[in-house]
Task: structure prediction
Amino acid sequence: MAANLPSSLRHIALFFERLPGIGQKTANRLAFYLLRLPDADLQAISTHIAELKRKTRRCRICNNLTEGELCSICEDSARDTGTITVVEDVIDLLSFETGNIYKGVYHVLHGKIDPLNHVGPEDIFIDSLLRRVRENTGTIKEVILATNPDMEGEATAMYIRNKLQELKAAGADFRISRLGYGLPIGGNLEYADYLTLRKAMENRSQFDRE
Result:
């Protein structure tokens, strides 16, 4: 059907079709929806899209997305800075924040160790996590490893655990824990409901023991 559309509409439909979870029919419907929008609304959307990459940056502490130096979580003095939850992506952070089940802070890796796709520890923000823990020895009491419970997520958690244990061996005093398995093996935090996340957080287990 896209081939029969006017060129500009076809390009928009093809763009939507490239997005995760969007098929051809949905892409076409979205393209037609934009076509029916008032000019002012369409202009506002195009402006926001144009500014997306220019304005969005990573928080200098936790790598969450922000438009300033720090994200709103790191700026919040009410958060417990002694507890850091390590997540793969910002969308996982949003899952915790939606349920209002956690009062600590985060560290976003922006990926996971995945050798088959040529992603190693140096390609994600593990070094900045270790530096953060090392520079805040005495303040940080717990690091919660909340990578997804799939093969790559487990490998990432094991790698980080081993590196954190080296810091503990050097004298740092904090707990390393892993989310409890209220989450299904092979599942993703993005699709977890509030109650599942709450139980996983409540039932997290110590992760620095062999």
Summary: Strands lie at 57-58, 65-66, 80-87, 104-108, 142-145, 175-178, 205-206.
